[in-house]
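Person: At home tonight, work slowly through the protein below, taking as long as you need, and write a paragraph about the fold.
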Amino acid sequence: MTKVEANQAQEKFSELLALVGDGKERIVIESEGQVVAVVVSYADLKRLEALEDARDVADFQRAIAESGGESYSVEEVISHYNKLHGTDFTRKNILNKR
């Protein structure tokens, strides 16, 4: 993993992209000593997304097991989410955000 300051990343962007594209590096971009971004290959991104999806499926399966197999309507799930997070989602506005 290579760390570079933001101004260096800007100056050497094409070089950094070549390293990342070849699958040889992951680039950490810092600004004033703070990590602000990471440049990874598309293959790395797809692996990360697959891991997130697997975790979501495992969480969903665990929730079903913990509920004793009870099922809930979409509206009930949205209502519960709204209560937990102080939001005001509806089925309609969720579907329209695509």
